Amino acid sequence: MTSTLRYERQTALKVQTDDYPSRYERQTALKELGEPGQQKLLQAKVLVIGAGGLGCPVLQYLAAAGVGEIGIADDDVVALNNLHRQVLYAENHIGKLKVEAAAEVLKQMNSNVKINQHIVRVDNKNILPIVRLYDIMIDASDNIPTRYIINDACYLLKKPLIYGSILRFEGQVAVFNYNTNITYRDLFPQQPKENEVADCNEAGVIGVLPGIVGSLQAAEAIKIITGIGQVASGKLITYNMLHNSFYEFNITANPLAATFLPANEVAFEGMDYGDVCDVFSVREIDVASFDELRNSAETIVVDVREEYELNETPILESIQMPFSAFDENAELPNAETIIVVCKSGHRSKAAAVLLSRRYKNVVSLRGGINNWFMLNKIDHA
Amino acid sequence: MGLSILAFGQIAEITGNTFSFDLVSDTDALKLSLEKTFPALQRVRYTIAVDKNTITRNTLLNETSTVALLPPFSGG
């Protein structure tokens, strides 16, 4: 018995360390891919920006396929309401950084893959050195400013970009800067204002939709790396889950794109992309984390709304410090965490920056009380 | 016989996913006409594709044209 056990243990160890090529034999059996294709995968370096609904399936399939080096850029933490779609994470990851949780899971999945953790919210001041480290970028972000920042960085550094985005039951996928000069700005030249694009956090999403769209992005990455098939280069693919419909559009080179693309790296770093890339680095928390944290005795909530705004939502246990008369040096009770809130999450972010000069662990509620109130209303409906 | 229109994302929520629309001469006229019928479209930014190619200038339309209204999505 003992010897059998030992034998099995040794076999298991062998699988971990010397599993190549059998680990990939089902994909190298594809004559289009073969051993040369696998070698290309093992040598590829891919950056995935955003480890959320789109990022999870992208990361899973690229790690499983044996992509040699994978970078993950994200600054968010896992929340309970992420789990229905961000399928890399489990309940024991709640409150952990997504980058760290994802790296842990992917390492267990394929220990041969090198995972680089970039714990950062990419902006136009920090993205270029990260992008330089990789061959292919995957935009799995969740907001418009970040999408323009990623696009413009990839344009400047001439890196292929696989774009994916979702809204409710629909998704978009496109490939930019690969065998064409087409970028996201040929499709949408000018960055829309916040109110011109529906926000997914508020719009709702079923988990399988980013699963499908992220899988399409991973497929494009594998095609680019191995040189097989037709890449959606300069094309926009749309998918509608409710109708099972796929459409493909050719993106025409747009003369307006040049007007809005940065001329060089200095111009890029000086551009104003709006909120996401402001110079303040205050951590924002989502509604689920807010509800978890605010009931703790170690947490205080600072509400910076004006007095006249307070009756718009149910009463929230908080310290009221209206932004119009905000005093960053005010004495606050001892607390492990200070959560600053306002109506939409903008003033609270600014106030959190001011408070964090004096206090530790100050965070801002993303989307503000409006978002919290709306999501709770949905939960209780 | 009119134009075939395909709408996506938040535009489809305003107009429906697919619909026919009275033939007009070009995409500028179509945009005006659509925004008159669906005033909410004035507040949404979108790119137009005619017969599966995105357009960057005013483009002539005919009875067989299929027009797609493509807004950007932000979610991930």
> Number of DSSP helices of chain B?
2
The CATH class label of chain B is Alpha Beta
Largest sheet of chain B: 5 strands, mixed
Proportion of beta-strand residues of chain B:
25-35%
- Tell me the number of structural domains of chain B: 1
What is the radius of gyration of chain B computed over CA atoms, rounded to a whole number of angstroms? 12 Å
As residue ranges, the low-confidence spans of chain B are: none
State the shape of chain A: globular
Question: How is this fold's topology laid out?
Answer:
The complex is a heterodimer of chains A (381) and B (76).
Chain A: H1 2-17, H2 25-28, H3 34-43, E1 45-49, H4 55-65, E2 69-74, H5 98-109, E3 114-119, H6 127-131, E4 136-139, H7 144-157, E5 161-167, E6 170-176, H8 184-187, H9 200-203, H10 208-226, E7 235-240, E8 245-250, H11 255-260, H12 265-270, E9 283-285, H13 287-294, E10 299-303, E11 319-320, E12 337-341, H14 347-355, E13 362-365, H15 368-380
Parallel strand pairs in A: 1-2, 1-4, 2-3, 4-5, 9-13, 10-11, 10-12, 12-13
Antiparallel strand pairs in A: 5-6, 6-7, 7-8
Chain B: E1 3-7, H1 9-15, E2 18-21, H2 27-37, E3 47-50, E4 53-54, E5 66-70
Parallel strand pairs in B: 1-5
Antiparallel strand pairs in B: 1-2, 3-4, 3-5
